[in-house]
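haha ok so turns out i had the wrong file open the whole time. this is the CORRECT one, sorry everyone. sequence first:
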Amino acid sequence: MWQDKRQTAADWLAYFQRNHAQLLPLPAEAGITAADYPPAFWRSIAMFQLGEYSEGHNLMRATHRWIANGGDPDLASAMQWFIREEQRHAADLGRFLKAIQQPCLRSHWLDQTFRRLRRQNLNLETALTVLLNAEIVSLLYAQALQQAIASPLLQTIARQIEWDESQHLRFQAVQLQHLRRERSPWRRRLSHALQRSLLWLTLRAIWPDHRPVFRAAGWSFANLEQVAFATLASTLDSTLARQPVQSQPA
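then structure:
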C-alpha cells in the first residue's frame, strides 16, 4: 500500500501547479501515418480523447456544496487544476489525431452514458467514487498505448497521462480518506465493495471499443481486469485507516 504526505488541498494545489511547470516536451511529428494501424485502433484513441475532456461543472458543484458544509475551501482551486489536467490530456490527444489526419469524435453512446451518470446531483464522495474508475481505466490505457504504438509523439503524451493519472488516483484517495474517516470499518468496506462492482461493470463496458489498443499492447481482458482491480485495491487500502497517513515512499 502506498502512502502520501500530501494531505491538504493546499498541498495538492501546489503539486498541480508544479506539475504544470514540468510537463514532458512533445515531439513535433507523429512519426507514423494512419495507414500503419487499422481504423479500429484510431477510433479507440478518438474515444479516449473524447472521454478525457470535461468542463467539470458537476464535480465543481459537488465540491462547492461540500465546502459550504465546512469542507476545506482550497479544494475548489485544487479541483480546478485537476480538471485542467484532464483537459490538457484531451488537447494533446487531439493534437496527435490531427497530426495523423484522423478525426476526433463528437459523441459516443458510452461517453454519453458516463456523462449522464456524472450529471446526477451527486455528493462529493459519490462523484469521486464514479471518477475513480475512469482514472484507473485512463491510467491503464495510457500504459497500453506506450506498448502498442511506435509514435514518439503519442508515447510521450501517454507517458505524461500515465504520470498524471497515477497522481490523480492519490489525490482522490486522500479526499475519500477525509470524507470517510469518521466511518466504521465495515461501512468503509461496504463502500469499497460497491466501488469494485462499479469497476467490474466499467471494464466490461469499455473493452469492446478499446480492445484494439489493449490487444496491440499484448493485453487480454483477464490481464486488464487483474491490473485494474490491483490498482483499485492499492488505492482503496489507503482510505481504510481512520487517521491520515503521513509518509510517502521514495
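Confidence is low (pLDDT under 50) at residues 241-250.
again sry for the mixup
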